[in-house]
Amino acid sequence: MHGLLKVMDTIILGIESSCDDTSAAVIKNGILLSNVVAGQAVHEAYGGVVPELASRAHQQNVVPVVHEALKRAGVTKEQLSAIAFTRGPGLMGSLLVGVSFAKGMARSLNIPMIDVNHLQGHVLAHFIKEADGEARQPKFPFVCLLVSGGNSQIILVKSYKDMEVLGQTIDDAAGEAIDKCSKIMGLGYPGGPIIDRLARQGNPKAYTFSKPHIAGYDYSFSGLKTSFLYSLRDWLKDDADFIEHHKEDLAASLEATIVDILMSKLLKVTKDLHIREVAVAGGVSANTGLRNAFHEYAERYKWNIYIPKFGYTTDNAAMIAITGYFKYLDKDFCSIDKPAYSRVGL
Ligand code: KG4
């Protein structure tokens, strides 16, 4: 038409398969149209993710999950502008399923492929926009506490693509510590949501567990896990049903200790850097105690806080698709020979 330029839609399919969730999402011009997640109940019997079983489940799930994401978005594969996929970090067998599928699909459609760092995706989950959702997003630079089953990091986010890890765990991640303590107590897997639920009915001051003394902004959670284990062993000598009798107080005290460790380092960073834009991301950011602590700190230290919706805290493809969208705008594409990587930083 005269004087009118036809503006092409930018439609990104995101695929996530780094651990035990197979997920696909569609983002059109920066707005989320669909986000489908298939979890894997198969690991519950083992008290943790079994890598071989995870990759097999991804194999079964990836086609129906992608199909469903496109269907819910009302988009055909021919309309896609590019396919973004989690390249790592994660379990190699799991990553390979999503990476290979995404590459094959992009190649067959002759569209660009975009590799996404899973950790960057968690941070950029704050920029996922829903059609009818509020568009409150952190302003750069902001500090992001990334806490999941595999990571506990404090990240300085200077822009969509410029992120600096200021501190991180030197051993276990916060979510890993929660899951392991839950396993020690004989509760189910994953422990995070179970501990969260029990903690709401318990006294966070009932028990004291050791806290690490690590210099700088780094974390450590393995000592806490050992302290939890040894304390329980002692208490069980006097009362064989100690866990059953006190599980709410144990969960509340464990959660309070972890939240306190996480928040005190985060506070130090915000004070040192004079930054009051503070975000949280990753699976553990679903935790009620941690969310409450963020609200308390916001009030006390005048922070502007950003807490993702529950669905965008744990692994999901919406965060991969939005990261892919930003990379697409930068024409930051990936060639087919780029392999998956299981271990990589930001
Ligand atoms: O980000 P995520 O889904 O996977 C990665 O590790 O990348 O995080 C999973 C972790 C698990 O350790 C799980 O127990 C924890 O997040 N988690 C929680 C809660 N929901 C999930 N931890 C505490 N409270 C929760 N409500």
Q: Tell me the major beta sheet.
A: 6 strands, mixed
Number of separate structural domains? 2
What is the β-strand count?
11
Overall mean pLDDT stands at 95
Can you describe this structure?
This protein is α/β, with parallel strands linked by helices and 346 residues long. The protein folds into two domains: 2-133 and 313-329, 2-Layer Sandwich (Nucleotidyltransferase, domain 5), CATH 3.30.420; 142-310, ATPase, nucleotide binding domain (Nucleotidyltransferase, domain 5), CATH 3.30.420. The chain is built from nine helices and eleven strands. The strands form two sheets. Strands 5-4-1-2-3-6 form a six-stranded mixed beta sheet, sandwiched between helices. Strand 2 and strand 3 form a beta hairpin. It is globular and about 70 Å long. The structure holds 5'-O-[(R)-(carboxyoxy)(hydroxy)phosphoryl]adenosine.
